[in-house]
Amino acid sequence: MWMRFWCWTKGGSLNVALMPIWSRLTGRLRACGLPMKRRAAFATTHQRTHEMIEFFRFLWPYLAHQQGRYLRALVLTFFEAVLATIPPLSVGLGLVILIRGSADIRDVAPYAAICFLSVILRTFVIQHAWRRGIFAGDHAAEALRNRIVEHMRNVPLGVLSGRWSPARLATLIVEDGRWFNETAVFFLIRIFQGVVATVVLALMAAWFAPVALIVLIVVTAASLLVIRVVKPIGKRVIRSRNDLLGQALLRVGEFADGIAVFRAYGQSGNARKNLRATVANLHDVALDGAPALIFLQQIGTAFVSFAGPLAVTVIAVLQLRGVTEFAAGAVTPALLLTLAAATTFIAGILRTLLPLELGNRARINISEFLSTPELPGDRSDFGQKLDIAFKDVSFSYGPGKEATISNLSFQADPGSVTAIVGPSGAGKSTLVSLLLRFHERTGGAIKLAGIDISQADPAAIQARMSLVSQDVHLFRDTLRTNLLLGDPDASEARLSEVIGAARLTELVKALPDGLDTMLGDTGRTLSGGERQRVAIARALLKDAPILILDEATSALDPITERAIQDALAALEAGRSVIIIAHRLHTVVDADQILVVDNGQIVERGTHDTLLENGGLYGRLWAAQEKATGWRLR
Ligand SMILES: Nc1ncnc2c1ncn2[C@@H]1O[C@H](COP(=O)(O)OP(=O)(O)OP(=O)(O)O)[C@@H](O)[C@H]1O
């Protein structure tokens, strides 16, 4: 019999029979723009296995101390899968006994008892397996999300303003993190369960009738073939869905943040239109993609449903032709039950393949982000004297972009005050962001206490610096939490002290819940000047040896600014200070003033020497003096 079957396939009859169907299918899909390789269909299993192994390898370290629990979940799943094969087998064998003519209930009763026992035991085992799997998977997802956040802390800021925008990262953490979790828990375990159960059931079917095994292999291969065809569509839909989701998040964020601007310019209609267009795109992708995916996936799983009838037909043909001779009548019900159970499990596996694609895409996206290089360096052995030295430093915001800083050198001694002034866009903020290692210089060297900062741990550098910038970010949390960012362990007394120094006492009194008032969109919104004072209080709390003030008092009224200047003067004592300021009267006492234009220091000196020089500083000073005399007519 086997020889005949072999000759039939070898002689090409099978190919001849399947070729027109295959050509039609591939022809239609090619017409839809899908790349098709005839033989490639048979690589599906290999590729899927490879993807699952890759996913597993990626998952494994994040399971950390939950690895044992996850493995126990897999072992329990293995037993659960074996238990799942017992009901069809025991019912089938009971039926065989009945069909063969046994009238004694005692012959059948053990099979019924085994069937019930296995069902009860399976329910028990499955619960334990899932509980362990879900716990371990959740743990891995949490560890992965923390790793992403940690990586965000350690990559140059340029990475986060480029391809990995905040919206893209939100999608990565929320959406991709979710699919990573689902794949780790549900799909991998379900596939493992399906494979084990299918193998056991297929062996049982082969025991009833060896030809059934061939039939199962053929229908499964046909299903995999179809799934292979579906895969590019699935990939395309999933990729555009991910991209659009990122865009939608970005637009929603922009719309929410900029609603006041849109309204002020009477453009809220346009902004809403943009937002709607993005949401509509998302909807279109779902609508276009979903029916195709469901239809093609159903075709894939439908093939395996033919296993039972096909096996019976083949057995019948073989019997009728006299190729085989066995008690088909007695065996067929058991065979059918076993095949039905096997096909249910195969269909279950096939149904997880497309969602598995989402998990796989999530893995690729997350790996891509995690592979962006972190800022190198681990030195933190700075001494007490934190002198700052820039030597021929150059920097540009991207390859091929014009240099924002070129060959810039200066030295700031410990305890001195260095002011950086210059026209808007000259590169002043960029300069301090290089010192903080928010970006990596492209040329020259920046040294802190004699150590090249490119060899230093960015966190160690940032721990030694307090930054108060013109853009103050407050978190949607209480005022207390926002202040304690400066020093999470600060005592109440210290907190009151800096609140007083930053002229925040009146504000705290006026807030409904004082320091515990929620800030942000769910709570109280602060004015620009109030925000700036909160940032100053944070810096006072941090008490770092280097203070960087980037237009720190620009949003304050003159009276508050004077008061804050006094507080800052007290803070400046004994520290190195770098002040970026447009209001030149705030820097007249600086030890050195660097005048920056076009990314270069064009003048340096004290206020008096610079005025004497009559250069750019002199012109800026004169322009400001004149501006103070201006008034609107
Ligand atoms: N993240 C960024 N990516 C690309 N270009 C940037 C980025 N940040 C700043 N720039 C550009 O670099 C140049 C210098 O900007 P920077 O903010 O350092 O100037 P500045 O002197 O501090 O200006 P201002 O006084 O107006 O704050 C500007 O042309 C600005 O557009």
From TrEMBL:
Transmembrane segments: 73-99, 111-130, 185-205, 211-230, 326-354
InterPro entries reported in the protein's UniProt record: AAA+_ATPase, ABC1_TM_dom, ABC1_TM_sf, ABC_transporter-like_ATP-bd, ABC_transporter-like_CS, P-loop_NTPase, Type_1_exporter
Locations listed in the record: Cell membrane
GO CC terms in record: plasma membrane
Keyword Membrane: yes
Domain ABC transmembrane type-1: 73-356
Protein name per the record: ABC transporter ATP-binding protein
Organismal lineage: Bacteria, Pseudomonadati, Pseudomonadota, Alphaproteobacteria, Rhodobacterales
